[in-house]
Amino acid sequence: MLKDITLGQYFPGNSVLHRLDPRMKILLMLIFVVLVFFANNLLSFLYLLLLVIGLIFLSRISFTVVLKGLKPILLISLFTALINLFWTGGEVPLLSLGFLKIYPEGIWRALFMIARIVSLVAGTNLLLSYTTSPMEMTDGLERLLSPLKKIKIPVHEFSMMMSLALRFVPTLVEETEKIINAQKARGADFESGNLLRRAKALTPILIPLFISSFSRAAELAVAMECRCYAGGEGRTRMKQMKLTLRDLSVFLILSALFLAIIGIARIPFPLSVSL
Amino acid sequence: MAEIKLEHVSYEYGAGTPFAKMALEDVSVTFTPGVITGVIGHTGSGKSTLAQMLNGILRPSSGRVLLDGEEFFSDSKGKKNKKQKQMQIKNRFRVGLVFQYPEYQLFEESVYRDLAYGPKNMGKSEEEIRRLVEEAAYFTGVEREWMEKSPFELSGGQKRRVAIAGVLAMDPEVLVLDEPAAGLDPGGREEILGRLKTYQREKKKTVILISHSMEDVARYADELLVLKDSRVFLHGSVSEIFSDAEKLEEAHLSLPQITRLMLRLRQEGIGLPDSVYTVSDALFALKDLLKGENGVC
């Protein structure tokens, strides 16, 4: 039940994308996310899917894993597709069921919508989640945001908090499961009764969970202080992040490929839908 | 006295994923009613999985769990109607399960209310609850002055007692304890295990004590169930099982230290019995030996 929640699902590997500097990956992800919205006709959507397939090859992550990663968005993409299917107007209806009319434009638009959501999620998963360890991700983010330190934003502290939070998600899930089982063994019933009763039934889970989280946080703080942690000032790293020529060239090539969408979207193509 | 029995029970974690792992394989065992059965095994031998199976927290992947001959999960897999669910919860009340490090289950604002949580879920009356709580407190050594305190003010060992009392308060027919003394100092271990033994004797309960300490099971258990690689390896009385040290070693377990010492002394030609499993027994044996020698002289 709770074990199905996977956050920061990193698949260790040694592919081009795995080795790419996390800062570059974050930037690439941002570029990709923006550019997905430029695709507007069949040609550009095909190109988008091609890009995603290209990323799969670059990351050497299996298709099934990528497909499984799309499961959480199944519902939302179907929903969007259906709405677009019925609410897109056109000239000649293909099918009419009472007040619902389906136009060919609607079908295309629904397909495009699915393609857009799928490539958005698959692309970001491949560029970041699957190929970047949570550590690298927060470090990369910290370095990218470090200019903000000049205006007194505690970037290091934020990224430390983020990596700690990520680190403790699995621990917390495990802990919650343990508490649920222990209370079940004492006859707790979480599944019957009305909403209020069910909410009340959660108290025996939430209180121990809060208490153990607080004491864990306190212990962690002491442990960190014992190892002389004093914030980001003057802190060195075991893994120095250095931009190599390779990183830069991979970044430039990939971003050029991504940017090509803008050009492709301008090519007049019969099956274009203004989105 | 309730009898709990497993029939060809298997359990697989993460079935259908690449991480699938068998935690129990074809386990058939009948726990003798009215005695303490110690369950021992090396880390990862399936002890904790077994414990959770006995109380219906985990449902076997295959096989049956029988409580007094009745199947714990009367429904077929997946389907659950209200009545069957109620029945399952009722069965759960008959088998009390104390998890490893059970302190984290404490949540109420006072010790009394926490102890009353289980009986309250069973739908007992206010007086009945009071009686059950007092009895559980008596057997676990939860003192009267703690009752109105918050459980979070207590020390580690005290919390442990309250947590165990919380399960005893449901007056289960079978009590399953997963490492009840883990993480306690020797004094605390003795206190808790000794009290549980008294409880079992006085109330004639069926107790299943999961432990990895040979010393503890030697001292407190009547029968032993040895698990090895998710299967039942040995099942019998304590002396039966301890008489075959080589077999135990196969399960990566060794005899209690004191037994090993006594056996070693026997090898050196000192006339000691070969079935000494606890320090106090050893003391008697040595005393007898010394008396005997004096007699000879």
Would you kindly provide a written description of the structure presented here, covering whatever features stand out?
The complex is a heterodimer of chains A (275) and B (297). In chain A, a hairpin with a 2-residue loop joins strand 1 and strand 2. Chain A has 11 helices and 2 strands; from the N terminus they run αααααββαααααα. Chain A has 275 residues and is an all-alpha fold. Chain B has helices at 47-54, 82-94, 111-121, 126-140, 156-168, 186-203, 214-220, 238-242, 245-250, 257-267, 279-296; strands at 4-13, 21-31, 36-41, 62-67, 70-71, 95-98, 174-178, 206-210, 223-228, 231-237. Chain B has a domain at 256-297. Chain B starts with a strand and ends with a helix. Chain B contains 11 helices and 10 strands. In chain B, strand 9 and strand 10 (231-237) form a beta hairpin. In chain B, helix 3 (111-121) crosses helix 4. The chains are: A mainly alpha (275), B alpha/beta (297).
